[in-house]
Amino acid sequence: MRIIEAVDIRYTYPDGTEALRGINFHAERGEVVALLGPNGAGKSTLFLHFNGILQPTSGKIMIDGEELDYSKSGLIKARQKVGIVFQNPDDQLFAPRVDEDVAFGPLNMGLPEDEVEERVRDALHKVGMLGYESKPPHHLSGGEKKRVAIAGILAMKPDIMVLDEPTSGLDPRGASQILRLLHNLNEEGMTIIISTHDVDLAPLYSDRIYIISDGEIISTGTPSEVFSDIDTIRGANLRLPRIAHLVEILQKEDDLPFEEPYPLTIGEARRKLRNQLR
Ligand code: ADP
């Protein structure tokens, strides 16, 4: 079941920049889908279409089989189903206290106060930020801000969470905390769509990958399908995951008998090497 779908989306910014040139994209319920592409490829522009912040020049967005309608009530409905976490948490966090920030969405939905309180507590618990309720968001670290921004979206209980470059700018621990959190949310049934230019991370967490380049989807499939077409990857100014690159060098330069497809993660490489050594 396609929970969200972009059908032939074109979008031209008012200054004439053609950012999206006929994008077809979907996520099945419960999937983790990564949109992988270099800077300027159109990832943020596409994401802003998923809950109607941008309206396509042509094409349509389908949510749960229904075409997104851009009336006020249609947009409210879309935004309850699809939560977007922006790349920069400073674009999302503006209340003076963490708990007020997380409460903003549910209060706006008109929920009763005790329900809002419960949702705020629940969301902060899920992202590991209980105890930070009274802190001003601007005093938090980058990773903490990101987690509070995610809590603010979680508190609205969306079916789909869309995250624009969720690990960019974070240190390795902050990034792995976010990835673990997203993994847990997905285990609980949330559909997750992530944009990234990080080819090392994408195969670790995604069921399916789309490669976007210059406003067009140029490849899609499982991580191993997508990365088996090295020419397309390089043509999009991306590269193989480092671990795959290492195995490629060992095979081509040192004649070690590895078979393609190359492993994309440390786990896959370990299995392959152990088999090889036996
Ligand atoms: P990505 O998220 O993959 O880095 P973007 O969606 O931000 O890519 O940008 C896609 C293209 O649209 C780029 O050429 C970018 O310069 C252009 N663009 C983005 N935002 C605007 C804007 N507000 N006005 C005009 N052009 C824009």
Write a compact overview of the structure shown.
The protein has 11 helices and 10 strands.
Explain how this protein is built.
The chain is α/β, with parallel strands linked by helices and 278 residues long. It has two domains: 2-239; 240-277, no CATH class. The chain contains eleven helices and ten strands. The protein has helices at residues 43-50, 72-81, 98-108, 113-126, 142-154, 172-187, 202-205, 223-227, 230-235, 242-252, 266-277; strands spanning 2-12, 18-28, 32-36, 58-63, 66-67, 82-85, 160-164, 191-196, 208-213, 216-221. The strands form two sheets. The chain has a six-stranded mixed β-sheet with strand order 6-7-8-3-9-10, with helices on both faces. α3 (98-108) runs parallel beside α5 (142-154) and α5 (142-154) packs parallel to α6. Bound molecules: adenosine-5'-diphosphate. Adenosine-5'-diphosphate (ADP) binds at residues 13, 15, 17, 19, 37, 39-45.
Search tags:
membrane; four-stranded antiparallel beta sheet; 11 helices; binds adenosine-5'-diphosphate; ATP-binding; 2 domains; alpha/beta; ATP binding; single chain; transport
Q: What would you call the shape?
A: globular
Strand content: 15-25%
Outline the low-pLDDT stretches. Answer: none
| Discrete helix count | 11
The chain-level structural class is alpha/beta
- Profile the largest sheet: 6 strands, mixed
Number of domains: 2
Q: If you average the pLDDT, what whole number results?
A: 94
Please give the share of residues in helix.
25-40%
Rg from alpha-carbon coordinates: 20 Å
Order of helices and strands: EEEHEEHEHHHEHEHEEHHHH
Bound molecules: adenosine-5'-diphosphate
Sheet with the most strands: spatial strand order: 6-7-8-3-9-10
Number of strands: 10
**Distance between the amino and carboxyl termini:** 42 Å
